[in-house]
Amino acid sequence: MIKASEETLQHVKKFQKELNTGTVALVLLSILKRAKKPLYGYEISKLLDNTHGEKQSAIYPVLRSLSEKGLLNSKVKPSDSGPPRKYFTISTLGKAVLKEWVAIWKEKQSLVDQILGEPHE
Prior knowledge:
The chain is an alpha+beta fold.
C-alpha cells in the first residue's frame, strides 16, 4: 500500500464525503423500494452497515430530506421497546425519481469506468 501524505489524505477524505453525499440518497431510495415492509431508521442503518459501511448518523438527515421532498412517506408508530419509531416507505414520486437517478448513475458509471480504464500518461 502506498503511504499517503497528509495533503493526499485530506483530498481523499473530501472526495469520499462528496461521493457519499451523492450516493446515500440513491441507496436509501433503492433499499426502501426493495423493502417488503416499512422500515425505521435503525433497520435501514443496519442494512447499510452490513453492505456499505455507512454510519447510522449519516442516514437520518438524508431520510428527513427525502421525506421533505416527497420522495418518502413516513408514519410514526409506538414501539414496545422504547420511544415511537418513524417508519419509511418510498412514495410514488420517489419511485419515479429513483428510476431516473439509476439511469443517470449507470450513464455516469459507464463514463467513469471507460475513462478510468484508458491508459494514463
